[in-house]
Amino acid sequence: MFFLRAFKVALTALAANKLRSTLAVLGIVIGVSAVIMMIAMGKGAQAKVEESITKMGVNLIFVYPGAVSKGTSGARTQTAETLSLEDVDAVGKLPHVAAVAPEVRRSYQVKYMNRNEAAQVIGTTPSHMVIRNFKVDHGVYFDKSAIIGRLRVCVMGASIARKLFGGIDPVGRMIQVDRKNFQVLGVLEDKGGDSWVGLDDSVYVPVTTALYRLFNRRHLSQITVSVDTEDHIDETMDVLEAEMMKLHRIKGRMEPDFLIRSMNEWRQRMQESTGAFTMLLMSIAAVSLLVGGIGIMNIMLVSVTERTREIGIRKAIGAKRRDILKQFLIESMTISLIGGLLGIAFGIAGAQIIPRLPLWKAMSSGGEWESVISPMSVVVSFGFSCAVGIFFGLYPALKASRLNPVEALRYE
Amino acid sequence: MSVILAKKILKNYRLGEVDVEVLKGVDLDVREGEYVALMGPSGSGKSTLMNILGCLDVPTSGSYSIEGREVSKLSDDELAEVRSQRIGFVFQTFNLLARTSAVENVELPLHYQGRPARQAAMSALESVGLAHRHDHHPSQLSGGERQRVAIARAIVTGPALILADEPTGNLDSKTGREILEVFDGLSKKGVTLVLVTHDRQVALHAHRIVHLKDGRIERIEETHRSPALSIPG
User: Do A317 and B76 touch (CB under 8 A)?
Assistant: First the structure.
């Protein structure tokens, strides 16, 4: 009953100066909706990264050549050429290893007739398809005999196939890589939205062909190991490290010439960076909420000065300090409450609309990016806006409550 | 019993470097049911004395008790409590809340007491003859009507004392007389009234006129309305 009446008094007071009150409310609306939108976009980015990591395959361990050079933050030296096909065979025999695939990569201009596209050529084995969770859309993947025979055949990622061949079916046709002819055996299924990994933009050739007939080198860029279950990842990493040490004859204090990373570590790094991204967006939004709070404080201070006489009257007829304090606090809270509710509505609406704007699509390099509205962000931003109302309303309310009634009554 | 018992009230204001003595020892005794007018030229300390009597301010020294309770040393909130429970104010400029209807203005003192308000407010408005205009806002009321609302607000809590500061000062003489009739009516019902005025015709409505000059009581004049005169002995 008290709050209902107090709320009505506050609304009456705010209605007396509609433009001013509306502007103060607007400050909070912008702040709250910005917080909700920014968190939604950040969460969307996180979900997106999660999704593409899952698409890259799960339960994976990566072995890279070179070692972590000490003193730098996880940077590794790329010069070392230490991984070999023998390593791949040995690793494949370890327990809990479901599949293992070598990878050797280089960028080329890939040609078909008079067309010319930049693509990554990846030398690998059929296990790669299993590990990376690929399916052949049409045609076939090259098999073991292609590897033994170092055949000049290839399988194309969906995206590069589309770019190079347009509407034509590439299966059976010849493409040129480094002026050598490769026959297209198959086209992979489109993974979609993976532009940053580039798997759809790659051309896959037998690892032996890549090493001996194309790149003319003996060492691999990477070995990818898939583990049977997630629980075995840590154990397998240890076993793998020990095996690699043995294979490369690394003993005692010697620095290993390889680096082992699990997908989980990648995921963690991604989560950290998208988490930081979300935090950054959120703190920018929080600043605007703060500015909204300063707006409330500003109009409340003006309001207290303007209504000095009213405060004097109220005190004369028996209002105590806390009565005046409550009155003005409820007024500033009413602003932040209305602003908060409207901000939630605009924030949710905005979070739905922004990913569909052409400008946003252009900025996020054409990828589909849905925002994810978490109930938590709604609750937190609403609570935060109420706190802003109390915090920034407190000083003006205290000022009002401490007015001397005699002077306040004399105020014109 | 004395509603107002003031002894040796002193009030100083510090203006820059100098202390200005506004009240220089005022003794005043107002009994229950009395109607007292405070008169004096401007600068005589009327308003200051009024503020102290109304518990809006405290004296620099001296003692002041309302219905036997010493109030000269109370804190802000304790004074607010005394104002809320025991005092009703009527001002020259009415001092109604503008965006609030007549009845809501009258309810306000009861809200601050935490008491149910609507019924009491309506009957207070009725006693000043304004029940039919209860939902009008002050801007829709004439000066006389506004002052009636203010009187209703002053009496709604059943205070021990009503203080009126130039209540007819902003009204034409006819309306002023009507307002004074309302006060006369309240006085007849036994309400204790203190009225500040510079108009002798207004002051003559009271039982006693207290003449202030230079911060002191110059003399106290019994009017023809004084019960002491009309009831000999």
Answer: no
